[in-house]
Amino acid sequence: MSQTRQSETSAEPILAVRDVSKTYEGGFRALKHVDLTIRKGEIFALLGPNGAGKTTLISLVCGLAKLSEGTIHVDGHDVTRDFRKARAKIGLVPQELTTDAFETVWNTVSFSRGLFGRPKDPAVIERVLKSLTLWDKKDNKLRTLSGGMKRRVLIAKALAHEPEVLFLDEPTAGVDVALRREMWSVVGDLRETGVTVILTTHYIEEAEMMADRIGVISKGELILVEKKDELMRKLGHKELTIKLDKPLDAIPANLADYRLDLSEDRLSLTYSYDTTAERTGIASLMRLLAEDGVRFRDIVTKQSSLEEIFVGLVEDKK
Ligand SMILES: Nc1ncnc2c1ncn2[C@@H]1O[C@H](COP(=O)(O)OP(=O)(O)OP(=O)(O)O)[C@@H](O)[C@H]1O
């Protein structure tokens, strides 16, 4: 994919977070020594449970909260020393549409561009609306739009001043399943515009669906940043379920060293193994089963989901 090639060769990161900590008044340390580099054109998911520090990190990048330690650069601009230039590079998509319900799509999006002091440019607004399939709704009042369209207007507003980085704070919070899927596809389409997307989410499924890379944040620490596929490969365990011909009374003694679970109905054995290990142990397991005279009907393998990986990681940190 061209996007990946571009991100790998681009020298200057679009976002550089260096050793950032945030202590709120009262002494609560919401972020601890966070380092993060985002390259142009990536879709990055910041994944973490409630209170992990996701919103705090976005607020610091957008200059909405003060850094306690460290530095943040957006497209080379220091967010503290060069706030306006840094902020102009960022589009922030909030969760709720708070603008005038009686305003038209066109006006509200054009107005957002003006807020950043950018000159009027109908061609840009047209391009943004078209990219979000809102063009035929441009004269509609906001209150007449469906939930999905309203969310797309929020994105259009954030893109109106042509930012380099788009932050989506929990893009699917409080939406139904159909709308969630619609949002996933909208974010996927944003790739075409070349904008870098950073989204926060509680949902592993969401990170898995949309992101190229995933950062896991827990209790103010960025505990892991990895390409999605790499994360699955590195940390993924697989499960092999062997469906038996006849119920098995107990796991045979010569299989005691394998991590095996016998199902309640005693008709299936599940073996978990590490996909990255030099030997998975499957061949010897099969041989020993045959020696024990255990016959089976079927074999099913299952890759552990990012959800299981995530829960494991956060638990390890407790
Ligand atoms: N202004 C503040 N003063 C003191 N503590 C704060 C402030 N804002 C946030 N916190 C605390 O910092 C921690 C991180 O909050 P933050 O909102 O960044 O988490 P989050 O990962 O965005 O959570 P959520 O997914 O629930 O939005 C929380 O424990 C929160 O209570």
Kindly describe this structure:
The chain is α/β, with parallel strands linked by helices and 318 residues long. It has two domains: 2-233, Rossmann fold (3-Layer(aba) Sandwich), CATH 3.40.50; 236-317, Alpha-Beta Plaits, CATH 3.30.70. The chain contains eleven helices and 14 strands. The protein has helices at 2-9, 54-61, 83-88, 105-115, 122-131, 147-159, 177-190, 204-210, 228-235, 282-291, 306-317; strands at 15-23, 29-38, 43-47, 69-74, 77-78, 90-93, 165-169, 196-201, 213-218, 221-227, 237-244, 260-262, 268-274, 296-303. The strands form three sheets. Strands 6-7-8-3-9-10 form a six-stranded mixed β-sheet, with helices on both faces. It has a four-stranded antiparallel β-sheet with strand order 2-1-4-5. A four-stranded antiparallel β-sheet has the order 12-13-11-14, with no helix packed on it. Helix 7 (177-190) links the parallel strand 7 (165-169) and strand 8 (196-201). Mean pLDDT is 86; it is low at 1-9. The structure holds adenosine-5'-triphosphate. Adenosine-5'-triphosphate (ATP) binds at residues 24, 26, 28, 30, 48, 50-56, 202. Residues 24, 26, 28, 30, 48, 50-56, 202 line the site of adenosine-5'-triphosphate. This is ABC transporter ATP-binding protein. Residues 15-244 form the ABC transporter domain. InterPro entries: AAA+_ATPase, ABC_transporter-like_ATP-bd, ABC_transporter-like_CS, ABC_transporter_ATP-binding, P-loop_NTPase.
